């Protein structure tokens, strides 16, 4: 991105943040704000309420009580900016990257499930629930955040994802939504300063493969996903996401 474009981009984002701060949540909608802030009054461990069903309409059971949101990004795709913007939406707090930490607990749970194949359904649900507890605690927003908004949806943005992690989300965090953030122009992405600093920077072709793989992972997850390429960052598009 050229310098002038970058300044313009930052200016537009600044405007959007200001607009969002004044927009506030809507009561009935399919976007993030209306669904995120709708489940108030349930404390740290909100049970599924009628309004809460908007976040994960097809989810049933205790595991659906907590809401999660994850940004699946391909790198140099504007994901930090996107995360900062999402964090302006009432009711949501996302952490930055964690070096694929979810993969650790996901891999461990997979091995426990395999080892306990003969155990009862109740035991299995207990395992899924206790893993959810760990992730929920782990994603507790910083206290300053709680000072100015009530957080009902927790999550993070990450560029490192694999099938094990997505399957873990399906099993243990079924009331989750994804934002898939990528770049349509992989040629420009491959020329980003970040990739230039790397010893073996991925070319446009490799980035294209990375993007396709991530897209397939998001599709296979079966979770509600909002597609947001960097090129489509715009005030109307973000309003559509935040609504
Ligand atoms: C995904 O990553 C985690 C942690 O790095 C690992 O334990 C797991 O085996 C990986 N799964 C796949 C399918 O590569
Ligand atoms: C990006 O924006 C263009 C033009 O508004 C639109 O046609 C396209 O569907 C969008 N792509 C995604 C993935 O949202």
From TrEMBL:
Spans annotated as Disordered: 32-51
TM region(s), chain numbering: 6-23
Start-end of Polar residues biased regions: 36-47
UniProt entry keywords in alphabetical sequence: Membrane, Transmembrane, Transmembrane helix
Source organism, top-level taxon: Eukaryota
InterPro entries reported in the protein's UniProt record: P-loop_NTPase
The protein's name in its UniProt record: Protein-tyrosine sulfotransferase
């Amino acid at each position: 991105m050229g310098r002038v474009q970058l300044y313009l981009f930052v200016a537009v984002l600044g405007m959007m943040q200001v607009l969002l701060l004044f927009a506030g949540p809507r009561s009935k909608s399919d976007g993030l704000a209306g669904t995120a802030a709708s489940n108030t009054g349930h404390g740290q461990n909100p049970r599924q309420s009628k309004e809460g069903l908007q976040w994960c309409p097809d989810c049933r059971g205790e595991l659906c009580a907590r809401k999660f949101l994850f940004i699946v990004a391909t790198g140099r795709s504007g994901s930090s900016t996107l995360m900062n913007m999402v964090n302006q939406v009432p009711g949501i707090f996302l952490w930055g990257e964690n070096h694929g930490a979810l993969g650790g607990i996901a891999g461990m749970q997979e091995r426990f499930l395999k080892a306990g194949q003969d155990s009862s359904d109740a035991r299995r649900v207990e395992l899924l629930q206790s893993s959810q507890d760990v992730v929920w605690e782990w994603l507790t927003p910083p206290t300053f955040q709680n000072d100015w908004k009530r957080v009902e949806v927790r999550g993070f943005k990450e560029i490192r994802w694999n099938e094990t992690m997505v399957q873990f989300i399906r099993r243990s965090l079924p009331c989750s939504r994804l934002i898939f953030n990528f770049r349509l122009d992989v040629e420009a992405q491959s020329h980003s300063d970040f990739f230039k600093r790397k010893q073996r920077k991925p070319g446009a072709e490799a980035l294209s493969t990375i993007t396709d793989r991530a897209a397939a992972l998001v599709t296979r997850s079966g979770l509600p996903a909002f597609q947001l390429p960097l090129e489509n960052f715009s005030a109307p598009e973000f309003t559509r996401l935040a609504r």
